[in-house]
Fold:
Amino acid sequence: LLYAPTPFVIGVPASFFAHKAIDIPSDVVVVDLDTNQLLIPDDVNIPDMPEPDCTELKNSLRESLDKLLLNTSKIEPENDETVETDYTMDSDAVDIAVRVAMIRFFNSANVFANFCEHTRTLRLYPRPVVALQTESFLRSRPQFTQFIAELCKTQAVEYFAESSLCPHNETYVRVQAGTDDPKQIGDKGKWFNESLMPIHFTVCYFSNFFLIRGK
Structure:
């Protein structure tokens, strides 16, 4: 997989390369979570992300992480179960905040704002095929950057165009509308269990099967 000709994101333990006696390919960017380092090969050029969109993204991510660290530091260490529970609750909210930050970055003015205005639908069925009119899209950016020019060449943009054609993801639509409350967009039961309506039904048992009748 490390030598695959397509982009990939995988996680491996630090001991993997030493144990397998495999050198890191020259075109692979490595994020070392143990040392908090980003290892970029010398011959790989990653363009700078547009500003101020990039700074706003960094600030949002730092704010989310700071909240997690602050809440975790307030937890009493005597009860390990309480620590784990509170940390899980906080980390879930941070996970939502990170997703919201990324969506807002991609929808920002210098990235993909008004993206759908520059797409052309070639086919709807059996699977949508949407073409991005790259030249008009790039001209419409308030600030042209090499980052966006390279990003437009990726398959991810193609899939994004197809999903934007008819967005079925209600959470994504809510985030676009400015919602960031985990209770409105979160996927954990603790955020919406109280609002669920119970479904009552009667189960009748016969010799070889069950009969379920709803009310």
In short: Residues 64 and 97 are 6 Å apart (CA to CA). Residues 82-89 have pLDDT under 50 and may be disordered.
